[in-house]
Amino acid sequence: MSQPTRILLALIVGLVGGILLATVSPTAAEALIPIAQPIGTAWLNGLQMTIVPLVVSLLITGVAATAEAARAGRLAGRAILLFVGVLFCTATMSAILSPLIVRTFPLPTDAAASLRAALTDAGPVAPTPPIADLLAAVVPTNIIAAAGANAFLSIIIFTLVFAFAILRIEPDGRDRLTGFFVAVRDVMLVVVGWVLVLAPIGVFALAFVVGGRAGVAAFGALLHYILAVSAIGVVVYFGSFVLASIGGGVGPLRFLRASFPAQAVAISTQSSLATLPAMLKVARGLGIPVATSGVVLPLAVAIFRGTQPAMNLAVSIYIAAWLGIPLTPGLLVAAVVVAALTSLGSASLPSQITFVSAIAPIAGVLGVPLAPLGLLIAVETIPDIFRTVGNVMMDLAATATVSRRNKDAWDDGMDVEGNSSPARGGGAPQA
User: Do the Cβ atoms of 417 and 74 come closer than 8 Å?
Assistant: First the structure.
């Protein structure tokens, strides 16, 4: 049995156990809840303790990898610019559409109230600040204090400044610092893996508490969450057809037929990396030169995840609606920036591993607590299918777009590295 299956099973058993015990013997359920709740909270704290070092190390190594790729030539530079633009577009779409979804198809009032009562430690992290105060607090006066307060926007600003400063120092120092943060990243991922080994116990304890207090409403709430967040992934999926058509000149039907093999692998593996060989074959079928797809697709798999900022932001917005936390336009704008930037530094790993660390910075900006994530990680297997398929389709659409722009550059007398082509008298193109 895979670890995601174990976690999902623990969620179901915990919810059912809590509901049945509360129905048969409310006194026994109330006696066991104070025992189960600290166990679940301790497990969730174990995940949270890795967030700050993991986010910092992922951002620094992500910036270093992106800068290294950009130095490889104009082809990689164009791809990276397109990736960043798409990430901000999908995050903006989610900031507009996710609140609309939860308002149009709200969680039933009774279920939301029951869940709020069940998650007694899931109040707002801090009062929502006015936009002026938020902007003033972006630049931290004390980065250690910001890390201790989980002020993720300030942490991200400082980390990005630090990461870009690393790129300006001598190569020896740059390599040492980058290597240090690579090691920190890898160590934190090992720790996350250890904590996730205990996930069935932690999720069972959290689910038991919610089931005992919220009853059957918990199942409806989780199903409602899956549908709402997966809907954002579906929008990103169809957005790839728009990008392929407008940017890459590939019609929707042709793009759909050609991408079927890659989509099948993505659904079965839930891994963009495992889908890379299938994506390379699809790119060949679309007429994309190997010289382009061989550069852009591996780069996309490494640093570009088209659905991640949109769906991570959707999770945070859903929790805010779930717990009745108001979100101002200024906070949503800040969350869009954080969602797009942190996705560039995310690791190419199953979403169960990076789920909390990827969403925590966005939740911190919005003033959303992390307690519900302990339950939501158990059902992440289903939204993760939409994440992976959307990522794969966006990778292919972006590759088609870069290939078309590259061809236009060649037709204008430039090769992929910006050298003059023979047609314009610039000599033989370089390999």
Answer: yes
